[in-house]
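Hey, resending since the last one bounced:
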Amino acid sequence: MQKKLASLLLSCIVILIGANSPNVLAQTHSHSEANQDIKPPKVFLDKNPRIVKYQLKRLSNARLLLVERSDDDPKYLLVHQEILGREGIAKGDLDDAVQAIANINDTDPVTELLALIPDVDSEGQLTGSAKQFVSLLLEQKIETLRSRTGSLIEATEADSRLLNIAGFAGLMLTGSSEKAFELASKNPLKMATLLESIPMIPSQKIRNSLNIKITAMLSDQQPIGVRLAAVNAMNSLTSDFSNNFKTIAPLVNNPNLRASAVRALLKIPRKNRDASVAEKLASFLVKFAEDTPTAKRTSDTFIEAMQLADQTLGLLPPEMSDRYRKRLSDVSVRVILIHTVEEEMRYDVPWFAVQAGTDIQIILKNEDLMAHNLVITKPDSLQKVALQAAAEGPTVGPSGKQYVPESSDVLIGTEMVSAEKQSRITFRAPSEPGEYPYVCTFPGHWMRMYGVMVVVDDLGEFQRNPIEPKDPVGSNRPLVKAWTVEDFNDKIEMGLRGRSFEIGKKIFNEATCAQCHQVGEIGKAVGPDLTDLWARWKGDAAGVLREVIEPSHKIDPKYIVRKVITLDGDVISGIVVAEDKETISILPNPESPEPTVIAQDDIDDMIKSSVSIMPKGLMDRFTEDEIFELLSYLRSINSTK
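The structure tokens again:
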């Protein structure tokens, strides 16, 4: 009884202290965390679980990861569980946490994740940490998932929608698609959930193998919820494009399916779009544009439909194409919708064409966690404009926009666009035909984040016989593959043999590694020094490879990107290099050592990113041999120290 009273008293004290502290919850902590060494917090793990949880929730992510923990004592379970439940934690730390929980409980990661998923979101909404749990589950070893087939089947029958998604995706991932569809066929809601789980399957090969089954769910006999989920699932496929185009195109007529059908069709390459189907599609889309009230012509659905219409006109005979284009121009300005690609520091539209002297609107939608912009330059001026923007820094000039320099080489640009936001610019295309680059002028992004606006005399003629523009930064490397660590399984040791130091050094520079990392005397100290990388990983070649392929797997706390939003609405992203009670110094420009100093009182919010400042996909234009040359070079540097 005395122990219970003591625990209750301690709980009250903790709550009273917390209620008067600015750090009541991790999500509401003050801006007082710098990159200097943070002392490990003292957490009383031997107290009542409710008290332990409260202590842990008061910690920021950085401090939580410093709490003492191991995988051989049950008292650390709550620490690992708190790490798993947090957003903004690097994937490597999440992997370590779930494995530690499994070790403590003498089970396996799949069993533990299935047990934790129902606690993530009582309403079963796939948001935030909920998606994080399901993703972690689906990234476990196939053998482990297959050994828990019974548990996955039970998950499909649970009351939790999240568990259903995890169960169905897990079964399909392990080769039990027939069983998954059999279980889902009992109930339309279950079938819709199964279809919703397909985009979460990490294997593109397995997703593509489900094409026929997904297509069957598009039948008119299926409930609208099932058909909608099927269209969304088809949006994640990358095979059988020609048949998919013919199947999905008629669904644009259905207002309940239109938005999803348009998005799926936009992903299908032009060469796989049947001209006869395109004619019917164009006819409907032009009529749809004319029938849409003016007030609704700025909606995402309308804009994406017009993107599809514009692309489809290039497949039609000249007279028909010109006639439809004239009708479209009478009801709306031509709109080009460009998305940023999360974590990859690139636009999803590498180039587009416009007719000289016509009005155009560009919409930039930022799907990334970092802020980006889009600045259109005169031909051959991309690098010049980007370097000028970096030199001038984030100060807003006469343009009224950060990182948009006052230059005769700049045609127009957006402001810096924060995550999940968008910006529109409307302008008249140049009268002079040519290739006009567009680029993100945030310092350091220009080398990777760019595209080309091709200005032509006759847009209809060009779209019928398009010619891809030259790369504005001179890269002639085609995409090789979206590499994963699994692609190198059992090949690493053999692959590192007989490599050339000079070739590896060349690739280090060509892959832009030297722009942010130092190796010996080469490169810049924006990110971690790689001179002793091999030593830090104790010769673990697979671990080093993961750092290259999956840069967000583990993030050094010193290089965590933070987005600062000021009271004036300015957004500054970068690495915090110094901080005290009065100011914070953030380095937004990797090409300049001068940080931006912001008063703490001027900060409205500061958000940490769980995504590395290093974009993924940097090696996707390099061959397997070239990647091994790079790894061998990094190992050689260590051995010559």
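Residues 116 and 338 are 38 Å apart (CA to CA).

Sorry for the duplicate.
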